[in-house]
């Protein structure tokens, strides 16, 4: 059996998903349309590019070999049979997909197949998704699609039914530790591990979070939010959440950080002594202020908020709901 490490040595974590993909590639079962789903920063685009390299590789028995001319061109972004669409685009319009559809039947220039990487497919308008569906229903034999999105539920059911789906998630600290320490040598390991926990094990969010200062804000704001939940005056909590307006990445981090704090508070409430969150003092205070039932209600409310975010709920509406459901769970 071919190991995933030998096929994707640059990729960290998600080994079960990589193993299945490597076996499919080795057996010639590369799907005509593959959807990679997972949180922002989990490596979807990186994996899509590695899979595209495998699809055009000249070495059929050991793709991607990394040494043939096709692999080298794919690695530096110059392979004529690999097209990347939507990288960095906030919206993918129907005109973009129609233009793709017009060239879909053009034969490959060099490789046996052409590969289209469609990044952030959740940004497609409804018209764009319907236009793409027409290609997915009757795809040319030489065309392969690699789509990325945060959650398959963001796409039409008709799109989902015509693609194979691989889910990527956060990784373990032991898997990411050496890589993050090498990429962020200016950050001490304790702070880095806290940031990693808040990011849900998503390496890309850790890197970007230190680059744009999001993680510092999350680490400072989360304990203040958790304690403000139990204050008599609800305006303190609302004022803090207002700082998150139009900052989706920070909200994602806050939800993760609050989940860790509430989980630790529940553990302490029932006599446990080990805390995992980035704010053990806040967890200790909450364990004394709130009953176990209240803390469980907070954790349940957070899961519901996460689902709302995955469904691309409007940011203002999400924050309004956050204030309402967390406050209700905490104080009734």
Question: What does the model show?
Answer:
The structure is a single chain. The chain is of the alpha/beta class. Helix content is 56%, strand content 8%. The chain has helices at 4-7, 15-26, 44-56, 69-76, 94-103, 126-137, 157-160, 173-183, 189-198, 203-211, 214-228, 234-242, 248-269, 280-289, 292-310, 315-331, and strands spanning 33-37, 82-85, 114-118, 143-149, 164-167. It has a 5-stranded parallel sheet, covered by helices on one side. Strand 3 (114-118), helix 6 and strand 4 (143-149) form a beta-alpha-beta unit. Helix 3 (44-56) runs antiparallel to helix 4, helix 11 (214-228) runs parallel beside helix 14 and helix 12 (234-242) runs antiparallel to helix 16. The longest helix has 22 residues, at 248-269. The termini are far apart. The mean pLDDT is 89.
For this entry, give a set of tags:
332 residues; 56% helix; five-stranded parallel beta sheet; alpha/beta
